[in-house]
Write a structure and sequence with these properties.
GO terms for molecular function: glutamate dehydrogenase (NAD+) activity; nucleotide binding. The chain has 418 residues and is of the alpha/beta class. Helix content is 44%, strand content 16%. The protein starts with 6 loop residues before the first helix and ends with a helix.
Length: 418
């Protein structure tokens, strides 16, 4: 079934707007409109009952102009090539906006992992890595977790690649368990970056997170950590949701308890309701709050519901949760949006730290990792804020302009081969 909103076309539309603000010709950035490499693989897996099922998988490398490609792997029924292309392109911009020496990549398998046993999931993962093996490596393309993939799955990836090479290669993947080369602070990094972005936005506007009302759509790893850290920073998280629905309480929700609940991979509708109002995901997006954090999937805010968004500020924890048309509507309505390529970059920043530690065979302390993440996010946020105000544009355009300048400069310096 065709997507209502093609995420890769959305990416190119925003890219063109940023290039126009920078007075770039299409010749300056045309290479960024096309991924460098795209692989579509078939994955035959023997199921526990003896049947053979064939799954589809993708790995897209968007750009290696600034360094090895970098990007997660997601397991979801809606995965397709256009989604993976868009996610890879956003990774290119994300790495550039926080100025780490990576390009963008992404991978995915069209599967609902909840329908598989652990053994089936492991066989699927190992077969996928075997099929994309020629593309990946610590100097080429470094995968990481994304939607429905976990540190344990990253451990299987590291092991599969290492078995093919004949020696341990921890730097082939990030987001691994600590015991096999993962970085302290990596699991919380994306959500921590979202909290830092929200805090910096409020500071720029002369406010604080203390007492600010917040709603969070999506209570996976990123959304749940963001909700927890925003709560601990003094914000009042009044609404949360996941695929099973959500809760609303104007006096604030018990975020510490809800975090523990979802950390056990349980849905919100399995949590004992303590008198909270039940809400849908659509209702959550339209709540009258200071800060909205969409942390689910792409295209959650579109032309149809953007006019009804009442949040004053949005911090995009998910990739591409707002369509370009909706973005224009929100901008006209005075809603300030901290874009995904900046707000959720904490994960790739600490993935970079993990990769560096692997290459050095050295372990950083968690406080040092978090301090370095803070430093990187503050620097990037200030650069985006200043550029957006210099060009009288939105923060999204500021982020894309900041990233585009770096990618275009790298491509010009390297030239076109041959």
């Amino acid at each position: 079934m065709a997507r209502k909103h093609n995420p890769y076309e959305n990416f190119k539309e925003v890219l063109d707007k940023a290039a126009k603000l920078l007075d770039l010709t299409e010749n300056d950035y045309i290479t960024i409109k096309y991924p460098e490499r795209s692989l579509h693989v078939s994955l035959p897996i023997k199921m526990d009952n003896g049947d053979v099922r064939v799954f589809e998988g993708f790995r897209v490398q968007h750009s290696s102009s600034r360094g090895p490609c970098k990007g997660g792997i997601r397991y979801h029924p809606d995965v397709d090539e256009d989604e993976v292309k868009a996610l890879a392109a956003w990774m290119t911009m994300k790495c550039a906006v926080v100025n780490i020496p990576y390009g963008g990549a992404k991978g995915g398998i069209q599967v609902d992992p909840r329908t598989l046993s652990k053994g089936e999931l492991e066989r699927l993962t190992r077969r996928f890595i075997a099929m994309i093996l020629p593309l990946i490596g610590p100097e080429r393309d470094i995968p990481a977790p994304d939607v429905n993939t976990t540190p344990e799955i990253m451990g299987w990836i590291m092991d599969t690649y290492s078995m093919q090479k004949g020696y341990a290669v921890p730097g082939v993947v990030t987001g691994k368990p600590i015991e096999v080369g993962g970085s302290l602070g990596r699991k919380e990094a994306t959500g921590r970056g979202v909290m830092i972005s929200a805090r910096l936005l409020m500071e720029k506007l002369g406010r604080t997170l203390e007492g600010a009302t917040v709603s969070v759509q999506g209570m996976g790893n990123v959304g749940s950590v963001a909700a927890l850290l925003l709560h601990r920073a003094g914000a009042k998280v009044v609404a949360v949701s996941d695929i099973s629905g959500g809760f609303y309480n104007p006096d604030g929700l018990p975020i510490e308890e809800l975090f523990e609940h979802v950390s056990q991979r349980k849905l919100l509708n399995q949590y004992p309701n303590q008198g909270f109002t039940l809400i849908t995901n659509d209702q959550l997006l339209e709540m009258d709050v200071d800060l909205l954090v969409p942390a689910a999937m792409e295209n959650q805010i579109s032309r149809s519901n953007a006019p009804h968004v009442r949040a004053k500020y949005i911090v995009e924890a998910a990739n591409g949760p707002i369509t370009p048309t909706a973005d224009e509507i929100l901008d006209k309505n005075g809603v300030i949006v901290v874009p995904d390529i900046l707000a959720n970059a904490g994960g790739v920043v600490v993935s970079y730290f993990e990769w560096v530690q692997n290459l050095q065979s050295f372990r950083w302390e968690e406080d040092y990792v978090n301090d370095m993440l803070e430093h990187t996010m503050v620097r990037a946020f200030n650069e985006v804020w200043d550029l957006a105000h210099e060009k009288n544009s939105s923060l999204r355009m500021g982020a894309y302009m900041s990233a585009l300048q770096r990618v275009v400069a790298a491509k010009k310096l390297r030239g076109i081969f041959p």
